[in-house]
User: Which sequence fits this backbone?
């Protein structure tokens, strides 16, 4: 097997192209969505949604970075980037409502989120374990070690697959509640949908990349180069 194998890039081309397109779409949708006004700031919208669901204990904090927004299930805190936290645009409230959707999932023990949280260690350490086992397996010409490494990498693939329904559900919750509470008007609802749908494609691209990477190494281990 080769450390620099042109076949690897052949396998990954679809994921690279999809990720490039998704990132361009996110950048465009976000820029347009920031120009569409909303009734509340991102922080105020998230607070309204959380309080309405009885989640007054979930905190909201401003954090550094752009599109660094996330929900921390351990601390029960929404961390919103400055533009989202302070901005009163469709993009800001859409992203904030999406993160609030994760808090609602957490509070209601949404099954895919529970499974995803359990799979976090596998996603964090699986790729590192894979690389160590794969390289040692190559050096020792141990088929078993390479297969064990591939199983470890499968933890990341599993996490990515489970993550898709979690993210899509949070976006669907955000779209519905922002319209229901009239935080955005018709134009704002379209902008929110465009931003969240574009972000959803980045998760699809990331999942495809992990699946195709797994497929490449599986092909090399089982099919191509056993010598």
Assistant:
């Amino acid at each position: 097997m080769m450390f620099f194998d042109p076949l690897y890039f052949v396998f990954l081309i679809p994921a690279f192209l999809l990720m490039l397109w998704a990132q361009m779409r996110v950048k465009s949708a976000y820029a347009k969505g920031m120009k569409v006004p909303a009734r509340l700031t991102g922080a105020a919208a998230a607070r309204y949604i959380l309080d309405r669901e009885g989640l007054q204990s979930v905190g909201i904090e401003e954090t550094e970075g752009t599109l660094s927004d996330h929900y921390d299930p351990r601390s029960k805190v929404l961390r919103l980037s400055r533009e989202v936290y302070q901005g009163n645009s469709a993009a800001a409230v859409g992203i904030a409502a999406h993160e609030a959707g994760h808090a609602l999932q957490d509070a209601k023990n949404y099954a895919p989120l529970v499974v995803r949280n359990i799979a976090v260690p596998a996603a964090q350490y699986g790729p590192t374990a894979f690389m160590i086992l794969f390289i040692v397996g190559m050096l020792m010409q141990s088929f078993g070690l390479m297969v064990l490494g591939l199983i470890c990498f499968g933890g990341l693939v599993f996490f990515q697959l489970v993550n898709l329904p979690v993210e899509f559900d949070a976006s669907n919750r955000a779209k519905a509640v922002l319209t229901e509470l009239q935080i955005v008007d018709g134009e704002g609802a379209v902008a929110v949908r465009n931003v969240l749908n574009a972000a959803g494609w980045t998760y699809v691209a990331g999942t495809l990349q992990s699946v195709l990477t797994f497929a490449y190494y599986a092909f090399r281990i089982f099919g191509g180069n056993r010598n």
